[in-house]
Amino acid sequence: MKKKVTLLTVLLLTLSMLFALTACSSYGSIKKAYENAGYTESESIQEYQDKIVEALGEENENYENSCTAHLFVKTEGLFDSGVALILEFHSTKALEEMTENSATFKGVYEDLQKSDWVKENCILLFALGSDSASVFINA
């Protein structure tokens, strides 16, 4: 009987951790929404990752462990083009730590929270084009 209770407890803890870890990221649905709208994710943003996060005022040396920059680009003609820069924080805790450690980022984050440009652990930092912001908002 004791083994069954222990096994049940371990199983419940494992399931709760699985749900907790998968429920905190909205990036998958955002990526899918941009791809459905005709955007492609640019890999070239990775070489600028450090500079983007440093520009936000992150003084912590481990900032690369806190977020990832994603750039979505749509080039389907002059009037149907768009660019969206999204910061995906690896956890809501990493997002909170960055707001505590950087006055610059805290100001940006507080302003963006007043709009629809924040979804859980993802922030739309820059949007240019007719539908680049609306894709993020409706994702």
Q: What kind of assembly state do the chains in view correspond to? A: single chain
Rg calculated over all Cα atoms: 18 Å
**Topology, number of strands:** 5
Topology order in helix (H) and strand (E) letters: HHEHEEHHEEH
Number of folding domains?
A: 1
Mean pLDDT: 79
| Low-confidence parts | 10-23
The outline comes out as globular
The count of helical stretches stands at 6
C-alpha end-to-end distance: 47 Å
Order of strands across the main sheet: 1-2-3-5-4
- Give the structural class: alpha+beta
| Biggest sheet architecture | 5 strands, antiparallel
Strand-residue fraction?
Answer: 15-25%
The helicity comes to: 40-55%
Describe this structure in words.
By secondary structure, the protein is of the alpha+beta class. The protein is 47% helix and 22% strand. It contains six helices and five strands, in the order H-H-E-H-E-E-H-H-E-E-H. A five-stranded antiparallel β-sheet has the order 1-2-3-5-4, sandwiched between helices. It starts with a helix and ends with a helix.
